[in-house]
Amino acid sequence: MLSIKNLHATIGDKEILKGINLEVKAGEVHAIMGPNGAGKSTLASIIAGNENYEVTSGEISLDGEDLAELAPEERAHKGVFLSFQYPVEIPGVSVTNFIRTAINETRKAQGLEEMPANQMLKVIREKSELLEIDRKFLSRSLNEGFSGGEKKRNEIFQMAMLEPKLAILDETDSGLDIDALRIVASGVNKLKSDKNAVVIITHYQRLLDYIVPDFVHVLMDGKIVKSGDASLALELEEKGYDWIKQESFV
Ligand SMILES: Nc1ncnc2c1ncn2[C@@H]1O[C@H](COP(=O)(O)OP(=O)(O)OP(=O)(O)O)[C@@H](O)[C@H]1O
Ligand SMILES: [Mg+2]
């Protein structure tokens, strides 16, 4: 589904990604871990099409289609979803209106009619119940005054509504209380299928107790320096990152 080959990217004259290779197949869950500043959010932003970064070499494709020439919204229409590490506040646009617009824009791009209002309401009700989101939130301005955890839960609500092919969750677990973590994780698990894939960026093994990854990758200094199965996350929790640094010098 997602194929990244030898991706190099810069911002200004600083090289941040230094040759990333990553293959994500449908039905898989990948976790990306790594120290602060390693380039994890940068990688997520570049997949989603953030134009502040310059891709200097390498390629990213989704189901065989090169993403390089596609604008962020075109990538979204093709099923790429990014849950932001720091969700932005949009005063004056309600959660419901935001999601309605996002869904209908995607449908339009796919040549479909707008979703009928009653069906939209039904789906909104179902998904907000799935994620135990208080109905009051749905009429509030997007993220405005939301607590950290409420913003993260709302990101997963958007994901649940959009049913993306490829969901990238950038530290969605940070700031969630223990109950919210379980609710968000079970939401992600319910949405998982053999047709979609999830890339989870996290600092904590804890989330991976709930959403068990097929692969764990360690991103350090702009490169994936180690990959393994779920047990790698446990090993990182125990030993930190230094041993990998040393290992990769040998
Ligand atoms: N606009 C920018 N200008 C300068 N440097 C930037 C810019 N954006 C990102 N960087 C740098 O790129 C590096 C990678 O940042 P990134 O946000 O991808 O790290 P991260 O792995 O997500 O870290 P964290 O775990 O703290 O979220 C950092 O050193 C950061 O300072
Ligand atoms: Mg980050």
UniProtKB/TrEMBL annotation:
Coiled coil: none annotated. Residues 2-246 form the ABC transporter domain. Gene3D superfamilies: P-loop containing nucleotide triphosphate hydrolases. SUPFAM superfamilies: P-loop containing nucleoside triphosphate hydrolases. Keywords: ATP-binding, Nucleotide-binding. Pfam families: ABC_tran. One of its GO terms (molecular function) is ATP hydrolysis activity. The keyword ATP-binding applies. Belongs to the ABC transporter superfamily. Ycf16 family. This is Fe-S cluster assembly ATP-binding protein.
